[in-house]
């Protein structure tokens, strides 16, 4: 009788094979818990540590990141609530005034008190000479040389956040401009037709260029509506 030998091919054990096996058998370590205490994972600082300790550290790191994100979300929500409350307060104050001088006064006071500005400038075109004498410094002259330096901002028709040049700061805030490190420029009117309101801060990070301008856009619309028909 011929006995035929069966050759069994044994697959080579590679890292990839082990990884694939563990992925397809996620309960492996549940059935072999004793292995966990003996497995060691290289650590760049503390040398080799057990797999359990490594997993605990990974989970702690992930948990810390999630907690940080949650804190940021809660912080942003609180900030948004405060901003919306201040916007509501400003809107109520603007509704109660009927003339241009009082409107400009309310806007300026709100920028300082409600929105914690370190400097405020309201710059408006006044073709019909409606600006009160008390706000002569707010007058913008069409084609004025200094306005060319604001060309990109005016053409964008959107709120701008970032730093400004010394000449621009002096034009907007006078002597206060020397201490201003970041700015927000709000167009007044959909196409800057009325001018703009500038808010200056001594905090370099407050109005950084990557700042979300959604809230500032709503504030800009509110200011435009308040001045409509008064200038």
From TrEMBL:
Pfam families named among the record's database cross-references: DUF484 (PF04340)
Coiled-coil positions: 49-76
InterPro entries assigned to the protein according to its UniProt record, in alphabetical order: DUF484, GAF-like_dom_sf
Keywords: Coiled coil
UniProt keyword Coiled coil present: yes
Gene3D superfamilies linked: 3.30.450.40
Keyword Methyltransferase: no
Protein name per its UniProtKB record: DUF484 family protein
Organism: hydrothermal vent metagenome
Lineage: unclassified sequences, metagenomes, ecological metagenomes
């Amino acid at each position: 009788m011929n006995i035929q030998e069966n050759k069994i091919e044994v697959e080579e054990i590679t890292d990839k094979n082990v990884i694939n096996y563990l992925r397809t058998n996620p309960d492996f370590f549940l059935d072999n818990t004793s292995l966990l205490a003996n497995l060691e994972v290289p650590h760049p600082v503390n040398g080799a540590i057990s797999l359990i300790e490594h997993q605990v550290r990974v989970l702690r790191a992930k948990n810390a990141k999630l907690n940080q994100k949650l804190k940021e979300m809660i912080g942003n929500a609180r900030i948004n609530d405060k901003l919306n409350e201040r916007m509501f307060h400003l809107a109520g104050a603007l509704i109660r005034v009927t003339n241009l001088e009082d409107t400009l006064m309310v806007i300026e006071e709100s920028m300082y008190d409600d929105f914690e500005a370190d400097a405020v400038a309201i710059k408006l075109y006044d073709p019909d000479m409606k600006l009160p004498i008390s706000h002569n410094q707010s007058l913008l002259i069409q084609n004025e040389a200094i306005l060319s330096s604001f060309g990109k901002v005016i053409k964008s028709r959107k709120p701008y956040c970032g730093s400004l040049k010394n000449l621009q700061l002096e034009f907007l805030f006078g002597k206060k401009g020397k201490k201003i490190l970041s700015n927000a420029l709000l167009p007044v009117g959909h196409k800057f037709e009325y001018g703009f309101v500038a808010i200056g801060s001594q905090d370099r990070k407050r109005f950084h260029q990557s700042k979300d301008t959604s809230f500032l856009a709503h504030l800009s619309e509110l200011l435009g509506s308040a001045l409509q028909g008064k200038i």
